[in-house]
């Protein structure tokens, strides 16, 4: 009897484990419910569709809405695809297909040990878009997404129609900042050095992800109440979340060497660089001067670093006309 009972119990457990999954989007790749980050699934009322796609053996999560010309949206650190929710709704309403990705190491996407230099990150997204059947598309990249977007546009210019880059300077294009700067400047710079250090950031932030990331959101945002900070804290507090985020910074030396080569040829597609008056100001445009044949610049007023959430209306007032030109 015990042997029969044990077999029945095993069958029951196998059945339960197979059915205790959640499925996102059309690719029908299942993720165990226990590892889902519930607070990132908040946009069903906007008909957002969650998908997974496998690229070189790694799983990428992306969210799409709308029909029309594709626009790839690349978030920065420490955020996920969710930062694009307002932009996605407006793009879809204006006849575009918005595709917001969790880059490798972010959100629901896999978190490998390597592949965080912008050349590798750009190639991964290029392969993703090719798998989705998009041979030409526009890009909007924010923060580290600006780094990756620049690499993608430079390395695959035939595929990128237009590119919008917000709120960052690009390693290898912008001059290295001085070691001794004012506290007002340093609040946007200190993490570059801290995040690159091996092992120490993980030791100091383990179990204190909320304190660490809230410090970032508190000091980089001008309209703090508009930023979905807890959503991102949940994502980066998941296993390997902060380690993968730090990996983009630890790959900066490799990214700089790549960008020195990229800088030898200008971007050929139209480029719009956007800063915020309470964050990088005109630095995004300055870092791209001489790097693009068709460069426009804009600065958003009364806005902090997280432009997609703090001032989406202003952002769209520049983004939509640029895409429609």
TrEMBL record:
A GO term, aspect molecular function: epoxide hydrolase activity
Gene3D superfamilies xrefs: alpha/beta hydrolase (3.40.50.1820)
Annotated EC: 3.3.2.10
EC primary class: hydrolase
One Pfam family in the UniProt entry: Abhydrolase_1
Tagged with keyword Transmembrane: no
Boundaries of every AB hydrolase-1 domain copy: 70-307
Superkingdom to which the source organism belongs: Bacteria
Matching PANTHER family: EPOXIDE HYDROLASE
Name of the protein this chain belongs to: Soluble epoxide hydrolase
Organism for this UniProt entry: Providencia rustigianii
């Amino acid at each position: 009897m015990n042997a029969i009972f044990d077999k029945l119990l095993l069958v029951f457990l196998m059945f339960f484990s197979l059915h205790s999954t959640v499925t996102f989007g059309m690719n029908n790749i299942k993720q165990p419910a226990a590892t889902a980050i519930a607070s990132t699934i908040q946009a069903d009322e906007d008909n957002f569709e969650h998908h997974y796609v496998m690229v070189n053996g790694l799983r990428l999560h992306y969210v799409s809405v709308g029909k029309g010309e594709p626009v790839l949206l690349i978030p920065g650190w420490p955020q996920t695809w969710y930062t694009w929710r307002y932009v996605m709704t407006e793009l879809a309403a204006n006849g575009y297909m918005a595709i917001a990705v969790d880059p490798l190491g972010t959100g629901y996407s896999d978190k490998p040990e390597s592949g965080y230099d912008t050349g590798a990150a750009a190639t991964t997204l290029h392969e993703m878009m090719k798998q989705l059947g998009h041979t030409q598309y526009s890009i909007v990249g924010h923060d580290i997404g600006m780094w990756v977007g620049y690499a993608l546009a430079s390395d695959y210019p035939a595929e990128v129609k237009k590119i919008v880059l917000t709120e960052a300077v690009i390693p290898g294009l912008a001059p290295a900042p001085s070691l001794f700067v004012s506290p007002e400047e340093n609040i946007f710079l200190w993490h570059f050095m801290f995040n690159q250090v091996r092992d120490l950031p993980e030791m100091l932030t383990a179990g204190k992800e909320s304190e660490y990331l809230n410090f970032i959101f508190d000091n980089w945002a001008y309209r703090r109440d508009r930023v979905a900070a807890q959503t991102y804290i949940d994502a980066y507090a998941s296993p390997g979340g902060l380690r993968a985020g730090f990996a983009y910074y630890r790959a900066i030396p490799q990214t700089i060497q790549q960008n020195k080569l990229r800088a030898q040829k200008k971007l050929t597609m139209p480029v719009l660089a956007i800063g915020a008056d309470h964050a990088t100001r005109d630095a995004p445009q300055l870092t791209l001067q001489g790097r693009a044949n068709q460069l426009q610049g804009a600065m958003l007023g009364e806005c902090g670093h997280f432009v997609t959430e703090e001032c989406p209306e202003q952002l769209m007032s520049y983004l939509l006309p640029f895409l429609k030109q």
